[in-house]
Amino acid sequence: LYILAIESSCDDTSAAVLHHRRTLSNVVATQRIHEEYGGVVPELASRAHQQNIVPLVYRALAEANIDKKQLSAIAFTRGPGLLGSLLVGTSFAKSLSLGLGIPLIEVNHMEAHILSHFIEAPGKTPPPFPFLALTISGGHTQLVLVKDYFDMKILGETLDDAVGEAFDKSAKLLGLPYPGGPLIDRYASQGDPGRFTFPIPKVPGLDFSFSGLKTSILYFLQRESAHDPEFVEKQRDHICASIQATIVEILMRKLKKAVAQTGVHHVAIAGGVAANSGIRKALAAAEKDLGWVTYVPPFEYCTDNAGMIGIVGYLKYLDGRFTDYRVSARARYQIGS
Ligand code: ATP
Ligand code: FE
């Protein structure tokens, strides 16, 4: 049973071939064009997807060493994401499924981030149901109770910026290039996380907020730079470490609250920010100190990739959850809907 999966929700085009739960290939074309604009330009993204998609699918098939006639189904990202980007993957998947006469399977990108934990990977055991998932990515911050593959409940989410945005916007304030999240992580490893303090927002329940942090960093940098124009340059590592520690603290407080409320202590993270070493360390500490069992996906399944779309395709295939050709892309697409 082979599944071809396509991901094109934002600025990465990706194609993967899965044999049951295992990825035989998972290729990603990252669009560098957006770097010079300091953020993703939707029109440029969809054009680049159009250029990338066919060669990328051929590469995924070649790396998997299979012919397209061996495919059992095609899975694609229906949403959420940029409409123009999603349309490219959606139309491509529809046409190929029609041409090959094999089933089409739509996938919710945010469910896929979570279910990436079920891709077979060396040394990894998937979380047992129910588990808590913290999805931290460029566009989302969600705390989800996962009762089964397709039975998920959002317990809380961000009221404004996503965690990835908080990282990227803070990086921008420090004059770092886009996307700055990974750079903050790198500089933070050389800095003192306790050097500067930023306020932790008071948000009721299990929801999050990150826009206040961005504002307080802005004022902090303006204030300090007024005394010393070279402040950012001299203190870069300490500022990065302090910002990262604040973001991790915000996330961990809510996770602890969710564990206390649900009694579920199997905790998984997913999404691009799951690559962050600060959050990984905090989870490892929670295993030791709080008795949690934590799950962190392999790096290649954290940021956008078609492998995670493929695992959902496989699970839906087993369940007979196929999609008909009237399906259309959805820019906004809540999980579980
Ligand atoms: P969504 O899934 O919500 O549609 P997205 O797919 O654009 O958003 P991802 O690709 O999952 O987002 O994640 C990208 C984000 O992850 C960026 O904001 C990037 O800065 C951030 N990121 C990646 N690596 C790290 C890291 N090591 N530390 C902090 N942030 C990181
Ligand atoms: Fe994503």
UniProtKB/TrEMBL annotation:
Q: Which UniProt keywords apply?
A: Acyltransferase, Cytoplasm, Iron, Metal-binding, Transferase, tRNA processing
Q: What is its EC number?
A: 2.3.1.234
| Requisite cofactors | Fe(2+)
Q: Which domain of life is it from?
A: Bacteria
Cofactor note as given? Binds 1 Fe(2+) ion per subunit.
Query: Where located?
Result: Cytoplasm
Task: Give me the reactions it catalyses.
Answer: L-threonylcarbamoyladenylate + adenosine(37) in tRNA = N(6)-L-threonylcarbamoyladenosine(37) in tRNA + AMP + H(+)
What are the binding positions for substrate in this chain?
Answer: T135, I136, S137, G138, G139, D168, G181, D185, N276
User: What CDD domains does this protein map onto?
Assistant: ASKHA_NBD_TsaD_bac
Query: Which Pfam families does the entry mention?
Result: TsaD (PF00814)
Q: Name the principal localization, coarsely classed.
A: cytoplasm
Which PROSITE patterns does this one have?
Answer: GLYCOPROTEASE
InterPro entries attached to this UniProt entry:
ATPase_NBD, Gcp-like_dom, KAE1/TsaD, Peptidase_M22_CS, TsaD
Q: What class of enzyme is it?
A: transferase
Membership in a protein family: Belongs to the KAE1 / TsaD family.
Quote the function comment for this protein. Required for the formation of a threonylcarbamoyl group on adenosine at position 37 (t(6)A37) in tRNAs that read codons beginning with adenine. Is involved in the transfer of the threonylcarbamoyl moiety of threonylcarbamoyl-AMP (TC-AMP) to the N6 group of A37, together with TsaE and TsaB. TsaD likely plays a direct catalytic role in this reaction.
Query: What is the protein's name according to its record?
Result: tRNA N6-adenosine threonylcarbamoyltransferase
